[in-house]
Design brief:
The chain has 100 residues and is α+β, with helices and mostly antiparallel strands. Helices cover 20% and strands 31% of the residues. The longest helix has 11 residues. The strands form 2 sheets. Strands 2-3-1-6 form a 4-stranded antiparallel beta sheet. Strands 4-5 form a two-stranded antiparallel ribbon.
Length: 100
């Protein structure tokens, strides 16, 4: 079973290929993705790596959590399921302040 890992505290010039190469030394990588800001196109400083099995995932966590890459200490752990977001937002409309 594949295991998805969260990788945090990445330098802003880290690429998905860099993650693929870094984690590939510890097991088979199914996918590696650095999360990018849609407005700036720049890395948000974190990403996700999917390892093909639990043994590779554990090996990568043990080897890379706290490991210095580009002057930054990586945070590597098993990714938690994404929490659902409510579609809210809102507020707005109506009179705000002053007299009627």
């Amino acid at each position: 079973m594949a295991t998805k890992l969260y990788v945090g505290n990445l330098t802003y010039d880290t690429t998905s290929q860099t993650l693929q190469d870094l984690f590939g030394a510890h097991g088979e990588v199914r996918s590696a993705e650095v999360i990018m800001d849609r407005d700036t196109g720049r890395s948000k400083g974190f990403g996700f790596v999917e390892m093909s099995n639990d043994n590779g995932a554990k090996a990568a966590i043990n080897a890379l959590n706290g490991h210095d890459v580009g002057g930054r200490s990586l945070t590597v752990n098993e990714a938690r399921p994404r929490e659902s977001r409510s579609g809210g937002g809102g507020g707005g409309g109506g009179f705000r302040g002053g007299r009627y």
